[in-house]
């Protein structure tokens, strides 16, 4: 369990690394910060998806 908790904390630190202004000693993340980070990821994913959607039909083909 200790390693699982450590992994979660490490993942949270990585998640917070970009764009989060307030770092707390226990690496907590409030809902507002979570939503902001998710929105950033969504924007990045949209850009990537649109770039690899070759025929621009909203689907990815092999």
Automatic annotation (TrEMBL):
Lineage top rank: taxon: Eukaryota
InterPro entries in the cross-refs: EF-hand-dom_pair, EF_hand_dom
Domain called EF-hand: residue spans: 40-62
A GO term for molecular function: calcium ion binding
Protein name, entry field: EF-hand domain-containing protein
Species annotation: Romanomermis culicivorax
